[in-house]
């Protein structure tokens, strides 16, 4: 508060100046007696000071008369004027006594001319006293504590006199009404002017941007109010409400500036700045700061903006952030697609192909979330729904662009590496969503859907050449009529084993998923060959021999895939149970096995069953029909959680 202007709270008043000119000659005649006269004035003040146990000059007085607390004759107008010009606030009490004597003279029938002359002198002295007192209170931190207490006592005494005059009612004398003087109100007005002067001060040179202006006002208000609480409140009487007076004045100036700023067409940055100050910094860092929270609790300053205007600003903020997030994510995807098209290889990180796209997108989303939460947690919750919509839109665009790359980029040298890098992206996206986004499971599934499709198409692309290499090997089963099934399977497994290192740059979890996809492919292709209807075995011995081959092949497939990371335990009974159906000869036993199998694999249809039963050349048509009927009971409308037989078409 030391930066306040040198002007007084109330400019010096000119009333009474003519009176002093009239008295000038008389004052000169008494110049020789002045020293003695002033001494008598201050002796009066000294006699009027309180002793221990007596009330101070700021304490309520009784009705003992206008001369209470004063001994001897009252000082003259000239003596009081001289004392006031020297800044002696002790003259307040004899001046008040002079005012009371004037009222007594009016009641005693003095002439109107005499009363006007005497009242003009008294009021001129009051103007001087007012300027002295309010000048001290204008800069209370610069005044000595004792002088500040004197000024406060004068104001308190004048307030009491105002109340007594109001209680007495309007008089009928020739005196002009001068009460209430409202010095406390003038003090409050001075506080408001001081607040405006302090808050309206220019920030650092060349920093008049809105952020700097708000920072200047916020810092000034906080520091000044803390000074009021720590240094002024202990000195000010409670009736002044000094903390509330300063707080309300600073608040009103701050709120007026905020309201004026909000009237303009705001850019995104200024909209955010206003909301941060109105909703966060002002209420939390200033009003609820440790030194001010308890003092301002009952003041009721309220918000810097009305609720309706805040809601409009928040809606604008959400719209701005949605547009920004969308633009940033779109740009990030465009840059990523450009790298694909330009055949730029991805980075390698910890032995894995790595893309920055997922990190960029997660950061864009997180920054928008944090930005909203820096205003209020409620706004953070609101923007979460907006961001989820934008993220889902992005993921669908990402899936679309990646699918186009899969089709168009097959001849690029970095094709497979970029495919792997984008599959690896799915892990970062999924981990962030599951750990950082508290969303319902259906919403999470919706977000993960495009990523699951992207990963699936990526796997299919990576496995395409391997599957093509395996196709002729699987055909050997049916072409040789299952004569050498073990040798054929060994070649299949060896081929897969040679190709698996190509997928080592996938993240470990995805490499395991890809091995599971290979596992599924091996089991599926094996069943397809069994369902070709090219093999018909009419004896139980032949069927048992084929069942043995199938069991041995199933065990080899399961062992190989498990060893390389497959956790697809659900595939384990697929081939052994078919082998058991082929081995069994009792139709009733076959029915039980088929019913159990349909429970494990709900997509196992009558067509698939018929293809397997066709191998058993010793079953009658009625037996086949009876066995097939068990699926009418077992399957129903159940959907498979994992497809197997739905991937197998029966001709």
From TrEMBL:
<comment type="similarity">
    <text>Belongs to the SEC6 family.</text>
</comment>
<keyword id="KW-0037">Angiogenesis</keyword>
<feature type="compositionally biased region" description="Basic residues">
    <location>
        <begin position="27"/>
        <end position="36"/>
    </location>
</feature>
<dbReference type="GO" id="GO:0000145">
    <property type="term" value="C:exocyst"/>
</dbReference>
<keyword id="KW-0221">Differentiation</keyword>
<comment type="function">
    <text>May play a role as a mediator of inflammation and angiogenesis.</text>
</comment>
<dbReference type="Pfam" id="PF06046">
    <property type="entry name" value="Sec6"/>
</dbReference>
<dbReference type="GO" id="GO:0001525">
    <property type="term" value="P:angiogenesis"/>
</dbReference>
<dbReference type="GO" id="GO:0006887">
    <property type="term" value="P:exocytosis"/>
</dbReference>
<feature type="region of interest" description="Disordered">
    <location>
        <begin position="1"/>
        <end position="74"/>
    </location>
</feature>
<dbReference type="InterPro" id="IPR042532">
    <property type="entry name" value="EXOC3/Sec6_C"/>
</dbReference>
<dbReference type="InterPro" id="IPR010326">
    <property type="entry name" value="EXOC3/Sec6"/>
</dbReference>
<keyword id="KW-0217">Developmental protein</keyword>
<dbReference type="GO" id="GO:0051601">
    <property type="term" value="P:exocyst localization"/>
</dbReference>
<protein>
    <recommendedName>
        <fullName>Tumor necrosis factor alpha-induced protein 2</fullName>
    </recommendedName>
</protein>
<dbReference type="GO" id="GO:0000149">
    <property type="term" value="F:SNARE binding"/>
</dbReference>
<dbReference type="GO" id="GO:0030154">
    <property type="term" value="P:cell differentiation"/>
</dbReference>
């Amino acid at each position: 508060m030391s930066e306040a202007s040198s002007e007084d709270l109330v400019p010096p008043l000119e009333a009474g100046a003519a009176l002093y000119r009239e008295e000038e000659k008389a004052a000169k005649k008494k110049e020789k007696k002045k020293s003695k006269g002033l001494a008598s004035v201050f002796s009066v003040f000294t006699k009027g000071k309180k002793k221990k146990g007596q009330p101070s000059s700021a304490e309520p007085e009784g009705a003992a008369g206008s001369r209470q607390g004063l001994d001897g004759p009252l000082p003259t107008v000239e003596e009081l004027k001289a004392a006031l010009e020297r800044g002696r606030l002790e003259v307040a009490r004899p001046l008040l006594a002079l005012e009371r004597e004037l009222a007594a003279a009016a009641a005693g029938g003095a002439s109107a001319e005499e009363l006007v002359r005497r009242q003009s002198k008294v009021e001129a002295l009051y103007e001087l006293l007012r300027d002295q007192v309010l000048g001290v209170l204008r800069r209370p931190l610069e005044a000595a504590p004792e002088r500040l207490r004197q000024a406060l006592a004068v104001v308190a005494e004048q307030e009491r006199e105002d109340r007594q005059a109001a209680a007495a009612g309007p008089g009928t004398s020739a005196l002009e009404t001068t009460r209430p003087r409202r010095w406390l109100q003038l003090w409050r007005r001075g506080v408001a002017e001081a607040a405006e002067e302090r808050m309206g001060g220019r920030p650092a040179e060349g920093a008049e941007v809105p952020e700097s202006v708000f920072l200047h006002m916020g810092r000034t208000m906080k520091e000044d109010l803390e000074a009021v609480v720590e240094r002024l409140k202990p000195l000010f009487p409670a009736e002044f409400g000094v903390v509330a007076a300063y707080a309300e004045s600073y608040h009103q100036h701050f709120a007026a500036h905020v309201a004026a700023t909000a009237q303009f067409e705001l850019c995104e940055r200024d909209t955010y700045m206003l909301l941060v100050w109105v909703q966060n910094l002002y209420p939390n860092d200033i009003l609820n700061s440790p030194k001010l929270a308890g003092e301002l609790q009952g003041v009721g300053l309220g918000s810097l903006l009305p609720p309706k205007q805040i809601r409009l600003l928040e809606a604008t903020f959400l719209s701005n952030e949605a547009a920004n997030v969308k633009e940033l994510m779109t740009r990030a995807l465009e840059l990523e697609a450009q790298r694909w098209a330009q055949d730029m290889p991805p980075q390698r990180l910890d032995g894995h192909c790595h893309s920055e796209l997922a990190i960029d997108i997660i950061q864009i989303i997180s920054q928008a979330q944090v930005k909203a939460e820096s205003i209020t947690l409620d706004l953070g919750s609101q923007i979460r729904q907006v961001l989820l919509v934008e993220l889902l839109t992005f993921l669908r665009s990402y899936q679309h662009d990646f699918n186009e790359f899969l089709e168009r980029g097959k001849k690029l040298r970095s094709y497979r590496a970029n495919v792997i890098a984008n599959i690896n992206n799915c892990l970062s996206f999924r981990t962030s969503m599951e750990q950082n986004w508290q969303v319902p499971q259906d919403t999470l599934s919706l977000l993960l859907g495009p990523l699951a499709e992207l990963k699936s198409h990526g796997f299919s692309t990576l496995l395409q050449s391997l599957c093509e290499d395996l196709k002729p090997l699987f055909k050997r089963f049916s072409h040789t009529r299952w004569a050498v099934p073990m040798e054929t399977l060994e070649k299949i497994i060896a081929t897969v084993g040679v190709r698996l290192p190509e997928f080592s740059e996938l993240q470990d979890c995805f490499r395991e998923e890809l091995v599971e996809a290979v596992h599924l492919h091996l089991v599926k292709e094996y069943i397809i060959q069994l369902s070709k209807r090219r093999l018909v075995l009419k004896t139980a011995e032949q069927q048992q021999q084929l069942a043995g081959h199938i069991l041995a092949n199933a065990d080899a497939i399961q062992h190989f895939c498990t060893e390389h990371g497959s956790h697809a335990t659900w595939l384990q009974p697929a081939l052994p149970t078919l082998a058991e159906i082929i081995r069994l000869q009792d139709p009733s036993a076959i029915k039980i096995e088929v019913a159990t199998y349909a429970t494990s694999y709900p997509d196992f249809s009558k067509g698939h069953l018929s293809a397997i039963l066709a191998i058993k050349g010793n079953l009658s048509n009625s037996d086949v029909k009876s066995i097939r009927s068990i699926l009418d009971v077992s399957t129903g409308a159940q959907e498979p959680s994992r497809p197997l037989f739905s991937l197998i078409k029966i001709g």
